[in-house]
Design a protein that fits this description.
By secondary structure, the chain is an alpha+beta fold. It has one domain. Helices cover 25% and strands 30% of the residues. It has 6 helices and 9 strands. Strands 1, 2, 3, 4, 5, 6, 7, 8 and 9 form a 9-stranded mixed beta sheet that branches. The longest helix has 10 residues. The N and C termini lie far apart (45 Å).
Length: 169
């Protein structure tokens, strides 16, 4: 009985399928940059905006929701930025534990550790289920994807200062 309950608690929630084209956002510290072969961790732009609106535009609350700031961490002195891309679904992969290259809600599962969690690391927000953990509330955060910089910039991109993004969302 306990094993069954534990298995249910650890089971991944279903992932929503994606449209053929969508906007995604990479939230990063300044002056973070990426080379052509760098894999970025991104969330859907609409999910990020919903997180901002649900967090009353509180910077720390939103960063915790993205798993970028722990529950007790204070805001770093380094500012953040939001880089927005329009991508095709086929350019994305989902960081899901399991068989690489399988379909996961219309997007393939990432093949390599770098694609799954970035530079071979697993941040505290990594669930292995294709979505983040809200490190402030301890609940499910937004769906997360990986995209290679060279693929993400094909249609251009827009960089916004974090505070401006919060104010305008």
């Amino acid at each position: 009985m306990i094993v069954a309950l534990l298995g249910m608690a650890l089971a991944c929630e279903p992932l929503q399928p994606l449209p053929d084209a969508l906007q995604v956002a990479w939230v990063s510290k300044l002056p973070a940059s990426a080379g052509n072969e760098t894999w970025l961790q991104v969330v859907r732009l609409d999910a990020l905006r919903a997180l901002v609106q649900g967090g009353s535009r509180d910077s720390a609350r939103v960063l915790r929701g993205l798993g970028l700031l722990g529950r007790t961490q204070k805001l770093p002195a380094v500012p953040y930025k939001v880089t927005v891309f329009e991508v095709e679904r086929g350019q994305l992969c989902r960081p899901v534990d399991g068989e690489p290259g399988t379909d996961s809600g219309g997007v393939v599962t990432c093949d390599t550790p770098e694609q799954r969690a970035g530079a071979g690391t697993r941040p505290a927000s990594y669930t292995g289920c294709g979505y983040l953990t809200d490190l402030g509330a301890g609940t499910r955060g937004p769906d997360v994807f990986r995209v290679r910089w060279a693929d993400a910039v094909r249609k251009g991109f827009c960089v916004l200062p974090w505070e401006r993004f919060l104010a305008e969302s």
